[in-house]
Backbone:
């Protein structure tokens, strides 16, 4: 068994960064506390480099260090940098001059741990670990929502998000327990083997199906898929805008990676017999999510609510890719997983970019959320308006941006996978979505300003928005870098599914420790006195 | 198999009777101790030297009127004494009172001469989770206090219940950690083996028995402090301090229900002392004299006589420890509530964590074969205390531990300068 | 389709619905009757099922403790949901924890059983009780309206019992023989049946990373709890350890 702790290097860097940042945040010195942002960004950059460096180690056979895990880590640390740039000066509503009133350090620490959770999903090797990673993503976000700014809507959003999130965790944990009951082990290898054996007989036990459905439903909450989306607008609106940006990225990426990991266990072959309900459930979720998100977004005037519904609809597009699965059209690169992963990367960049620009425009009070509040802002702040517009165009799916390619791949894969109806529905929804995104652009560029703008002057924020916009265009024109990663991940998923790893359980274990612990287990009865203290 | 089961059952019943009997005399001992410390005579009217006083007390408790306040929640009011006494008595189950009876030890002829087929642990039960069982029972004992405080429907009881709950939850943490740092060194959670390991001497200092109190004194101090707090006795008896709260959570109780609270307090004391003796004070190990009797350390498994000796030694240590309890009660003044909480959260919990980490490091090094002698643990403890003092100096000044001003107080009035500000704030 | 199970589930749903607090129009007696019936049907079914699985051996005596603990757990779980007083509900939760830990002890999982008591009964629920005490002070105070009337009782009962029914059908649909056959050999049984040593060795070798992860998760939650609990506004320290100047 080849794996070792080195594979966890990026996550360890992030968590160490989080601990350092947390301690620095306790300092009475204002400069030290301000530099926590820099330390957080630096640790993410280190994690990114580490992920690139170790990316190639175990690509062949292992579960832990395969391209999907590398892609996950790269995404978490890369987009993580964007979200941290976006949260300069967080949390809002505090008094920086009073050390004990300000907990800047803790905020970034929470962010880093959450990102570590995101980047861990692709490396998990058993359900317990997967559950803990999902919780590691979620729990910091609850706290960030509640403490990101000190007003009542934020607290309400925090409570709402926490209770519903805990409920969803209960649901998928329940599902995991059924998968455990089905396979007799929480290890992925054992569960995969159990699914293979059961599917070979043509009859999947109901317990496994119920478990899968519960897992899908529970994780659907994390990605805000349609029947479980209703918390999203309230929470997105109530949270401080940088936190909203984080929410539109971290839980979503986690959810999709987790869904891919769980479906890997089933071998993506649930099309026969009663097991059909699971892929059908995905299709229903996808269609509902697209329509609910886009249609309800049309009705909004509050930009944050609008973007919340937009993020719901984007989950719908990605679910289409997931429903198509990894086998689209033989060996062609247009598999559903590849499209989903590409879309996930693109979506994260453009939506965080848009939120960064929005944070800048909202100003110190963090209250400007309505379309009227940013009417005509392009005249006074053309740079930020341009960044925002670029990200919005990409969210629409204009050619030349990453959003266009993402939608293109999704549609391609749906057509190749024989889901023509889904492809048509994606295109219809893209058209609907254009309407409300263009309303924001129109408000910025065409309308006259209502009142003077009080923007949040921050170089970091500007850098974040600019980075988002530039990357959106860059990957739109040169998609090869991102596409290579997503495609090799999808290929790895496919080869894993076709040749599931047999034999022992590959888990990151210090072999020395295992040998010692298991070879000479502690005696059942305590050792005699002489054995411990010298006679 | 049935024979062993019956032996355990008989032992359980014997211990139950013995403990409840001892509790009655503990109360007498407590009063005598108080009298001794305060230079009085104490109870001396009932029987010779007042020895029948417990009997008189019991009769009095039974004959007194049962009273229930009209605002009390009837079910919980009755339930509370039961809930408080049950876990207190359950804790005895895992105490190793007298080492082991060697396999083949037979009953006397007139009792049938039945012999134990295996080594018999002289305890009610010997689960692999021994220490955790003690902790679980200690953690359940909070409920009686909470319920009594709440159900009485009186503010004194209520405040007493609140204080007791907060205190017991807080002090449970260092208690558990100090117990675990002993368990981790012994490599087992069973109380019996942990005791057995102590029945020996240090190799280099051969007169010093290798008790855990000598290897891990910091853990011992923490544990003792915590069991004082857990049983709500001075200096931690804020939950029932007479000057402020009448009787605390049992203010409204009378007659036998009140007696049950007393019983629970004393049985918690006995459990605490027994655990302290078993885990830290060498259990049934009779130091030095065993050299004469056995020409070496006392063996774990013995016959009837050896078992009886161990039993007596164990109880002797427990009684001595109980006397220490009483001694402290009548000597030390009471803490203030915020000091109490500070002591737990800012002092004892970090220290107990450090102790636990140190014990774990010792276990690791022992497993690696680097060190073997348990004396290293003692050295570690000394170093730990040194570090503690060094760090305490570096800590920012504690603003909480100072004189508090109380509105309209004759002794601690609010300074005039602050009064105006205060009134405007109110 | 197992009609006995469906009947038991339906009876249980009716019982719970009737038992839910509904102000003055309580139907506790009827609900109690229905719950007794439901448990009766369920236990009878289980006994028959055991007999079918073990060639006519009903195992009532061996499983007496199981039935007792299971019934206690069910009754106290219903008590948690149905009792109009929050403190009683919390205490029923404690009782349920004890019953479930009894079930764990019967499975030789002593560690899990004791940890369940220490963590749930000893820590979490004590905190609940503490908070409930602070919120509703003492004795016979009239219960609040939201405590005496369950909101959306029908929907909650319906959804939960549909879920329960589905799960039960899924587990029992294979029939006694098929079920025993389909059970995977539990890995724990292979080496040392819930022994503390094996548990520890596994936890610190095979599951070392998840264990560390749980530690990080708890640390972060602790920090978050302190962050949320800390007030942002300066508090007027009236009689506390506050900003009053020293004498």
Residues:
């Amino acid at each position: 068994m080849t794996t070792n702790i080195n594979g966890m290097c990026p996550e360890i860097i992030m968590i160490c960064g989080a601990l350092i940042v947390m301690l620095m945040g306790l300092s009475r010195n204002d400069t030290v506390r301000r530099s926590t942002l820099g330390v957080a960004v630096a640790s993410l950059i280190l994690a990114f480099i580490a992920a690139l460096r170790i990316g190639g180690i175990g690509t062949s056979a292992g579960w832990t260090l395969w391209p999907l895990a590398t892609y996950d880590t790269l995404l978490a640390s890369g987009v993580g940098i964007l979200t941290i740039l976006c949260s300069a000066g967080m949390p809002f509503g505090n008094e920086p001059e009073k050390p004990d009133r300000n907990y800047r350090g803790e905020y970034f620490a929470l962010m880093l741990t959450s990102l570590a959770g995101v980047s861990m999903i692709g490396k998990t090797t058993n359900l317990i670990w997967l559950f803990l990673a999902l919780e590691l993503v979620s729990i910091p976000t609850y706290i960030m929502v509640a403490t990101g700014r000190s007003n009542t809507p934020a607290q309400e959003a925090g409570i709402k998000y926490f209770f519903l999130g805990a409920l969803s965790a209960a649901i998928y944990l329940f599902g995991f327990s059924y998968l455990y009951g089905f396979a007799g082990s929480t290890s992925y290898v054992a569960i995969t083997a159990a699914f293979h054996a059961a599917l070979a007989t043509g009859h999947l036990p109901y317990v496994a199906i119920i478990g899968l459905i519960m897992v899908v439903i529970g994780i659907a909450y994390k990605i805000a898929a349609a029947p479980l989306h209703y918390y999203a607008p309230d929470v997105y609106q109530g949270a401080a805008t940088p936190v909203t940006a984080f929410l539109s990225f971290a839980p979503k990426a986690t959810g999709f990676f987790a869904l891919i990991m769980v479906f890997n266990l089933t071998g993506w072959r649930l099309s026969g017999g009663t097991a059909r309900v699971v892929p059908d459930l995905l299709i229903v979720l996808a269609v509902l999510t697209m329509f609910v998100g886009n249609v309800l977004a049309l009705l909004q005037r509050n930009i944050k609510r609008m973007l919340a519904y937009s993020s719901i609809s984007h989950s719908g597009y990605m679910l289409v890719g997931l429903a198509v699965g990894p086998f689209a059209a033989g060996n062609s690169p247009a598999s559903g997983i590849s499209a989903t992963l590409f879309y996930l990367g693109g979506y994260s960049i453009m939506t965080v970019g848009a939120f960064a620009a929005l944070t800048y425009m909202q100003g110190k009070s963090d209250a400007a959320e309505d379309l009227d509040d940013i009417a005509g802002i392009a005249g006074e702040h053309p740079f930020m308006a341009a960044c925002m517009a670029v990200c919005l165009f990409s969210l629409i799916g204009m050619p030349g941006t990453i959003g266009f390619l993402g939608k293109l791949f999704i549609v391609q894969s749906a057509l190749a996978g024989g889901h023509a109806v889904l492809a048509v529905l994606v295109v219809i929804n893209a058209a609907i979505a254009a309407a409300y995104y263009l309303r924001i652009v129109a408000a910025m560029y065409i309308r006259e300003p209502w009142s003077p703008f009080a923007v949040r002057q921050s170089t970091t924020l500007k850098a974040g928005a600019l980075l988002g916009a530039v990357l959106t265009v860059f990957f739109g024109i040169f998609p090869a870098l991102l596409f290579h990663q997503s495609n090799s991940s999808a290929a790895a998923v496919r080869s894993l599914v076709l040749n599931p790893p047999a034999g022992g359980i590959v888990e990151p274990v210090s072999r020395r420790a295992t040998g010692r612990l298991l070879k000479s287990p502690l005696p059942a009865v305590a050792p005699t006195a002489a054995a411990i203290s010298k006679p | 198999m049935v024979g062993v089961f019956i032996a355990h059952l008989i032992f359980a019943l014997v211990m139950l009777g013995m403990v409840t009997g001892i509790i009655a005399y503990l109360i007498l001992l407590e009063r005598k101790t108080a009298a001794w410390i305060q230079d009085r005579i104490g109870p001396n009217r009932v029987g010779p030297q007042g020895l029948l006083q417990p009997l008189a007390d019991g009769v009095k408790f039974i004959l007194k009127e049962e009273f229930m306040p009209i605002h009390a929640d009837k079910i919980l009011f009755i339930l509370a004494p039961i809930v408080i006494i049950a876990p207190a008595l359950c804790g005895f189950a895992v105490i190793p009172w007298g080492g082991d009876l060697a396999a083949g030890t037979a009953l006397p002829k007139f009792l049938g001469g039945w012999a134990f087929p295996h080594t018999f642990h002289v305890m009610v039960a010997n689960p692999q989770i021994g220490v955790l069982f003690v902790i679980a029972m200690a953690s359940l004992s909070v409920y009686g206090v909470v319920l009594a405080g709440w159900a009485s429907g009186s503010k004194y009881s209520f405040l007493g219940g609140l204080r007791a709950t907060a205190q017991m939850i807080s002090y449970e943490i260092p208690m558990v950690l100090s117990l675990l740092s002993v368990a981790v060194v012994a490599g087992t959670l069973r109380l019996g083996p942990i005791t057995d390991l102590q029945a020996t001497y240090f190799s280099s200092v051969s007169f010093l028995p290798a008790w855990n109190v000598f290897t891990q004194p910091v853990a011992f101090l923490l544990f003792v402090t915590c069991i004082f707090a857990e049983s709500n006795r001075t200096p931690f008896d804020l939950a029932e301090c007479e000057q402020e709260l009448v009787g605390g959570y049992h203010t409204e109780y009378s007659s036998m229900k009140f007696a049950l609270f007393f019983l629970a307090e004393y049985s918690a004391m006995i459990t605490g002392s027994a655990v302290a003796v078993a885990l830290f004070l060498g259990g049934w190990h009779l130091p030095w004299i065993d050299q004469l009797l056995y020409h070496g350390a006392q063996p774990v498994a013995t016959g009837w006589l050896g078992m009886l000796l161990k039993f007596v030694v164990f109880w002797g240590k427990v009684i001595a420890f109980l006397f220490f309890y009483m001694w402290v009660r009548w000597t030390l003044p009471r803490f203030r509530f915020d000091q109490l909480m500070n002591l737990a959260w800012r002092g004892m919990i970090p220290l107990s964590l450090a102790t636990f980490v140190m014990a774990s490091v010792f276990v690791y090094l022992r497993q690696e074969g680097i060190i073997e002698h348990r004396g290293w643990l003692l050295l570690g403890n000394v170093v730990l205390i040194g570090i503690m003092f060094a760090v305490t100096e570096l800590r920012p000044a504690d603003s909480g531990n100072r004189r508090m001003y109380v509105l309209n107080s004759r002794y601690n009035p609010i300074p005039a300068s602050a009064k105006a500000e205060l009134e405007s704030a109110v | 389709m197992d009609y006995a199970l469906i009947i038991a589930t339906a009876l249980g749903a009716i019982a719970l619905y009737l038992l839910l607090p509904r102000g003055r129009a309580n139907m506790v007696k009827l609900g109690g009757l229905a719950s007794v019936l439901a448990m009766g049907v369920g236990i009878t079914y289980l006994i028959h099922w055991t007999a079918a699985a073990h060639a006519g051996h009903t195992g009532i005596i061996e499983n007496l403790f199981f039935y007792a603990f299971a019934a206690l757990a069910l009754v106290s779980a219903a008590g948690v949901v149905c009792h109009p007083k929050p403190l009683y509900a919390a205490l029923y939760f404690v009782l349920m924890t004890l019953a479930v830990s009894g079930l764990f002890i019967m499975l030789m999982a002593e560690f899990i059983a004791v940890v369940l008591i220490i963590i749930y009964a000893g820590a979490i629920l004590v905190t609940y009780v503490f908070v409930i005490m602070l919120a509703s002070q003492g004795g016979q105070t009239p219960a609040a309206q939201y405590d005496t009337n369950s909101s959306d009782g029908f929907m909650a009962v319906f959804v939960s019992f549909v879920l329960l029914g589905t799960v039960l059908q899924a587990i029992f649909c294979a029939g006694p023989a098929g079920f025993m056959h389909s059970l995977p050999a539990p890995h724990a049984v292979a080496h040392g049946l819930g022994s503390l040593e094996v548990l520890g060795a596994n936890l610190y070798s095979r599951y070392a990373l998840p264990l560390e992860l749980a530690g990080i998760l708890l640390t972060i939650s602790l920090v978050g709890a302190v962050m949320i609990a800390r007030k942002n506004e300066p508090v007027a320290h009236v009689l506390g350890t506050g900003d009053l100047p020293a004498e």
About this structure: Residues 72 and 168 of chain B are 24 Å apart (CA to CA).
